[in-house]
Amino acid sequence: MLRGCFVWVRGLILCGSDNLRSMLNQTVFHYNEEVATALAAQRPVVALESTVIAHGLPRPQNLETARRLEQIVRAEGATPATIAIIAGQICVGLDAAQLEHIATTDDVHKLSTRDLAVAVARGWDGATTVATTCWIAERAGLEVFATGGIGGVHRGALPDVSADLPELARAKLVVVCAGAKSVLDLPATREWLETHGLTVVGYGSDELPAFYTRCSGLPVDVRVESAAEVVALVRARRALEVAGALLVTVPVPVESEVPADVLQTALYEALNEAAQAHIAGRDLTPFLLARMSEQSGGATLKANLALLENNARVAAQIAKELKSNP
Ligand code: PSU
Ligand code: MN
């Protein structure tokens, strides 16, 4: 079950830093066959994260969603690469048993940037956050990554800033998300993105979406209406060698949006409970998401599933457009 498929997707005739990169790929990353074949053939691939599966969604919806996201990417004509660490191996693309393992096993670690080398050294099983998925996807030769909502600056006195943000500032990927989670301090998160030079794209939107809702009152940097327009931005960024991820933010589909009053009540209840129970660090985000789902009678969960599916679809369309129009 743990056998990765050791297929080297980089060309053999490489020189200089490409050669080093290739050696790193060969020893560190384990591609499943579907992903290796797609990369070798220059076909579009979409990276998917696994923390949302292991820690962000309840069972059994988590495994169903993991499988559905992969199917949506395939239906759009791209290849899904769900990323996780299995027994200390960095897996780019999981087989059915590995996906089930990540979704149904209790001691799967939530791995952010600081944990990655520890997980490899200790042979852990771990789910990758946006931060670690970015780190891996970029080095594995992927260009597009779909997630739900990125981490950001949390509310409260302690400056709790998700490692997602600095990793996004370093990556060169296209990251498709529904904005930052409403549990966060959204204005502070927006400022952080601006300070670090991350371009925020609104996909059919003038405002940064707020995950469960379509609007935040905060502006995006540029609005686009199509995957082709995103690709035009990617090409300009590559020509200019601009660093940082291109953050493509897609509002949750309107029929799945959580009404503002339901959201406010659920959010404040969840934040209060987290403060009283001294929930902090890596446990905070999963706690808030789970409590809000209970408080809202499942409305936030429904929105979460809908936006994940929507983002996977948009990411696959962008990945396809990038390959069809090089
Ligand atoms: N968005 C979701 N569900 C999630 C997450 C984001 O809809 O579970 C996860 C992502 O993996 C993200 C992480 O990287 O939460 C951020 O956690 P933290 O705030 O602890 O950095
Ligand atoms: Mn944190």
Largest sheet: 11 strands, mixed
Low-confidence stretches: 1-15
The total strand number stands at: 11
Mean of pLDDT: 92
CATH superfamily of the largest domain: Indigoidine synthase domain
| Strand-residue proportion | 5-15%
What key phrases describe this protein's structure?
alpha/beta, Indigoidine synthase fold, binds manganese (II) ion, globular, binds pseudouridine-5'-monophosphate, single chain, 11-stranded mixed sheet, about 325 residues, 13 helices
List the helices and strands and how they pair.
Elements: H1 16-28, E1 29-31, H2 33-40, E2 45-48, H3 51-56, H4 61-75, E3 79-86, E4 89-92, H5 96-104, E5 109-111, H6 116-122, E6 126-128, H7 130-139, E7 144-146, H8 164-170, E8 174-177, H9 186-195, E9 199-203, E10 222-224, H10 227-240, E11 246-249, H11 260-276, H12 284-295, H13 299-324
Parallel strand pairs: 1-4, 2-3, 2-7, 5-6, 7-8, 8-11, 9-10, 9-11
Antiparallel strand pairs: 3-4, 3-6
Helix pairs in contact: 4-5, 4-13, 7-8, 10-13, 11-12
Bound molecules: pseudouridine-5'-monophosphate (PSU) and manganese (II) ion (MN).
Pseudouridine-5'-monophosphate binds at residues 49, 51-52, 55-56, 112, 129-131, 148-149, 151, 162-164, 181, 282, 285, 289, 304.
